[in-house]
Design goal:
With 321 residues, the protein is α/β, with parallel strands linked by helices. The protein has 14 helices and 11 strands. The longest helix is centred in the C-terminal third of the chain and has 19 residues. 36% of the residues are buried. Keywords: DNA-binding, Transcription, Transcription regulation.
Length: 321
């Protein structure tokens, strides 16, 4: 069977690797493109590996990838995809941000995988376009850029902007693009090669449902935890949580102790503190602003609770940002 549509020349991806990028995301781009070439028996896609300085780039697993070029070098590229993982100073690199703005002025489509949406946002290139990011970094990006049209989807394609939550969703994005450019039959054949059941749609859930992650078998407990997650900045009282599911506060306490081994207040507080840790590590927000964003009315109380849970102060974690 012949796959792919006739095209005058291969489409070339410029894959820009940022220090500590995830190898899974890198492979999820390269392998579907390679398989598209193999199955179609012609070169539909090419790729160039790019780093900030042209030097090898270390992934988060310690494996380094050799770059073909540095940013700014003249290359024939049809679309750039930036890969980054761990949030840190590399996502505020002025060289990268300046280069992104120049690439945008040239009209080249730009994409950000996993946390690379931070780079696109800091370069001012997301505007009102739909965008997404890995679920763990979504609150941090939303706090830093509250006006973004941030959806939390698996991936978003909005004009010349591509953003993706990363992980296996990167393969979904690439297969979606291959299907659009060379037909669904080719994309489905690539799925078969990689033993994937199907290409997920962009609006599918990033994370497993709360009841699956916590092994919660009580629908009412699941509903309460979902409510908590939606109200981390403005915590809901125990009585309001109980009323929402038609239980008394005593019954709700029994549910939490039975299924999670803790009180309602403790579970809710730990959810808020886990959000706080992400904000401290991934943004430049002050400790006071983080405490308010996570529903604490007193910065000193926030600091005490934080140290009790994590064994270190908010200031120590903020220094990692």
């Amino acid at each position: 069977m012949t796959y792919g549509f006739a095209s005058p020349e291969p489409r070339c991806y410029g894959i820009v690797l940022v220090d500590q990028f995830p190898m899974m995301d890198f492979s999820a781009i390269i392998e579907p493109l390679r398989s598209a070439n193999r199955l179609s028996e012609r070169t539909l896609y090419e790729w160039r590996i790019i780093s900030v300085d042209g030097e090898p780039v270390a992934s988060s697993s310690g494996i380094s990838i050799i770059a073909d070029a540095a940013i700014g070098e003249p290359l024939r590229v049809d679309r750039y995809l930036l890969l980054s993982g761990i949030v840190g100073p590399q996502l505020a690199d002025r060289r990268l941000i300046g280069w992104l703005r120049r690439a945008d002025r040239q009209g080249i489509p730009l994409g950000g995988i996993c946390t690379a949406a931070f780079l696109l946002a800091r370069a001012g290139l997301l505007g009102d376009r739909r965008c997404t990011i890995h679920w763990e970094s979504l609150p941090s990006l939303a706090e830093e850029f509250p006006d973004l049209n941030l959806t939390g989807e698996l991936f978003e394609v909005d004009g010349h902007r591509f953003t993706c939550s990363g992980g296996l969703a990167t393969a979904d994005l690439i297969l979606h693009l291959i299907a659009a450019e060379h037909g669904k039959a080719l994309a489905d054949a690539i799925c078969d090669q990689f033993v994937l059941e199907r290409i997920r749609q962009p609006n599918e859930r990033q994370r497993r449902a709360t009841n699956s992650r916590l092994l919660v078998k009580s629908p009412k407990l699941y509903s309460i935890i979902e409510q908590m997650g939606c109200h981390l900045e403005d915590p809901v009282s125990r009585s309001d949580l109980a009323n929402a599911v038609g239980l008394s506060t005593r019954q709700v306490e029994r549910l939490f102790r039975k299924h999670l081994g803790c009180t309602v207040s403790r579970h809710y507080r730990e959810m808020r503190l886990q959000r706080a840790q992400l904000l401290l590590r991934q943004t430049g927000m002050s400790i006071l602003d983080v405490s308010v964003a996570c529903g604490f009315t007193s910065a000193s109380h926030f600091s005490r609770c934080y140290r009790q849970l994590f064994g270190r102060s908010p200031r120590e974690d903020s220094a990692l940002a």
